[in-house]
Design goal:
This protein is mainly alpha-helical and 345 residues long. Helix content is 63%, strand content 5%. The protein is globular, with a radius of gyration of 26 Å.
């Protein structure tokens, strides 16, 4: 509403702002090949790939890290051959072929397939113009945050069951509950203790997974859109290959996603795992105190990323290969539309 002066009498003029031309680039547009069933099936395939890769990778990574805590790393091929032979002899490697492999596969399938499907379902219709940079990045950032909040709770029950099972293995027989495997532990917890233990202490994990998911998908889409413009820029010879561009935005997306979420894990270790002081007290009573002191009172802010690359080596390879596979299947395709203007409905 606004007023104009016509002589001495104010005249009220109404303007309907919806009756003006608007570009459909600001709307969610249904792609021509949109298929919710196909999106769901592709997401399940990507989740299955992550389940198989991550469970097999952790099968070797876990005993390897345990062995390196007590022995030095191999310096030549002869020592490497002995090192690998000792890994195959470890109990953690042998036990992993049972319920641990199936348990990790179930976690990877449920978590990875869920967040990839939601990302594709929510974001698949936000279009870009082919000749200009993306100007709807704020919608994609909000979408990635929504996906992170919607799926961050999935890892919590798996983490708590795994902790309870590992604790039961080291307890004396008179105090142990006798869990046979991860699934037996989950069943016993649900029938005897209820469902609350599945989610006890889950806020740090949920915060870390929310930040990781948000940054992973946002940066992957953001950098992929930029690679679209530089792939053929300034050349008549075809430019860079699709795989070279995919290597850039997939690796950067995974690296930045894990990088942003890792400080939450560091705070968790500072609160839960640091040894008690001489008075039998914790160094930090809560996460807020740990974060505040890590920002400068007692520590350096870079201490929040201490051990990051070891953690990246643990979670990065299966996540990178899964994102690569999902992108090849079209789950991260960007919808490009010409920037013409259509009247508002």
């Amino acid at each position: 509403m606004f007023q104009e002066i016509e002589g001495q009498r104010p005249v009220v003029v109404s303007r309907n702002h919806m009756d003006r031309p608007r570009s459909r680039l600001y709307r969610w547009v249904k792609p021509d090949d949109w298929s919710p069933t196909w999106n769901y099936q592709r997401s399940l395939m990507a989740g299955g790939v992550y389940a198989g890769l991550s469970s097999a990778y952790y099968q070797v990574h876990t005993p390897c890290t345990e062995l390196l805590k007590f022995y030095q790393s191999p310096n030549n091929f002869a020592q490497l051959r002995i090192f690998i032979r000792e890994i195959f002899k470890m109990d953690s490697f042998k036990r992993g072929f049972g319920s641990s492999l199936a348990f990790n596969s179930l976690y990877g399938l449920s978590f990875e397939a869920s967040r990839i499907y939601l990302w594709k379902d929510f974001l698949g219709g936000y279009p870009n113009e082919p000749d200009i940079v993306d100007h709807s990045w704020f919608k994609k950032l909000a979408t990635s945050l929504l996906v992170g909040l919607s799926t961050c709770w999935i890892p919590v029950p798996f983490n708590n069951v795994q902790i309870r099972y590992q604790q039961d293995q080291i307890l004396p027989p008179e105090h142990a509950r006798g869990y046979k495997n991860h699934f037996h532990a989950a069943y016993s917890i649900a029938t005897k203790d209820g469902f609350f233990p599945f989610f006890r202490g889950g806020l740090p994990i949920m915060a870390e997974k929310t930040i990781q998911t948000m940054c992973l998908f946002f940066y992957l889409d953001f950098i992929k859109e930029k690679c679209h413009h530089i792939q053929h820029y300034g050349t008549d010879l075809g430019g860079f290959s699709d795989n070279s561009m995919r290597l850039i935005y997939t690796s950067l997306g995974v690296y930045l996603g894990v990088l942003h979420g890792y400080p939450i894990l560091t705070l968790g270790k500072m609160v839960e795992q640091l040894p008690l002081n001489s008075k039998g007290e914790r160094f930090f009573n809560n996460y807020s105190e740990a974060a505040w002191k890590a920002l400068g009172e007692n520590f350096n802010v870079y201490s929040l990323w201490h051990g990051f690359h070891r953690y990246l080596l643990k979670v990065g390879p299966p996540m990178f290969l899964t994102m690569w596979f999902a992108d090849v299947m079209g789950l991260f395709d960007i919808l490009y539309l010409e920037g013409y203007v259509v009247p508002a409905s």
